[in-house]
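Entry 14. Two folds queued back to back today. First construct below, sequence then structure tokens.
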Amino acid sequence: MRIVVADDAVLLREGLVRLLTEAGHKVVAAVGDGPALVEAVLAHRPDVSVVDVRMPPTHTDDGLRAAIAARRQLPGTPVLVLSQYVEVSYAADLLADGSAAVGYLLKDRVARIEEFLDTLDRVARGETVLDPQVIAQLLAGQRRGKALGALTVRERQILALMAEGCSNTAIARRLVVSSSAVEKNIGNIFAKLGLPPDDAQHRRVLAVLTYLRG
């Protein structure tokens, strides 16, 4: 894949470049601030970008904002955002346009090389993948609106796995149920959340976004 890497920490940026190169990918640009990320994405149109949340100029959420700006100008461009902390709002902001091909991982996951590369590949293919710790924080909290309150326990379990980027087959395997049971529950989730028939991936993203917003 052709990849753009954006991180202001030189050691981490160069480490990512080396890791990706050794995995057989081509890093077409490696930048250290938000504006440079937007320029690189528009210039190279990469298969996926790996972006740190906190970068110059303010060192708050500039990387995230730059990724969102790049997707606004180049709709659907795949982005995997890396963060030092669990921030549910960051994941929600990424999904706010209703498009897929986004990922949100904690930086610790990079050390698990196979897991990181697998997530990167899935995001490049158009999937939505959220860090399990983000999902765990949601499950531990009380962020439940009226729409989510209508879901059964099983439907909430399935929605949480959807947020992690699991396919229907993977969900069936994790919950030890049939694929048809998963499909039926997902249909119920879409109906209860008021998501009419549309592109299946698009509805999954909207369902996950509803889940994040609670």
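Second construct, same run, same settings:
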Amino acid sequence: MMTRQIYQDEEIEIRAANELEAVLHFAAVQASVKEIGAWETWCTEKYTLEDSRKYLTDSEQKRHRGAEFNFCLFDRASGELIGSVGINRIVQEYKFANVGYWIRTGYTGRSLATLAVRAAARFAFTELELTRLEIVAMESNVRSRRVAEKAGATSEGLHRNRLYYHGQPRDAWVYSLIPGDL
């Protein structure tokens, strides 16, 4: 299958990664456990190379089924995998989905997550013909909220018990992106 690319410039490429790139994915996760793990329950010290391999294999199967579309950011100069952006929880009946993202420690603060969200949104609106994307960020995740705002998303308020994290319901800000926002 041809690799699906959704963005490329001189420095960054955003595309679907394959199972053979599990080592790169695992290295990015390992380098970022403290920062990503603060917001994502899957990202722990126990995350393994096999977890990366399974994630990439599952992502390809879900992409083929149209159930989920996960992409990775690559630094073109070094070849390092430096983040991820995904369109998931797709509800075709209502033409909406969720967008999630993370950036490898050491690459944050460069607007890469904003770039990734906007690229994924263009893909979702043009290729998948969705009409709404939601970004859900835990109340205290200021950086993720800032990404949503910089990407042009509209805050729709703080939703009580919107996320479940480490066995506890958490309040989260919900943002929306629609085609006109890009």
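Quick look at the second one. Helices lie at 22-31, 33-37, 49-65, 112-126, 142-150. Residues 87 and 99 are 5 Å apart (CA to CA).
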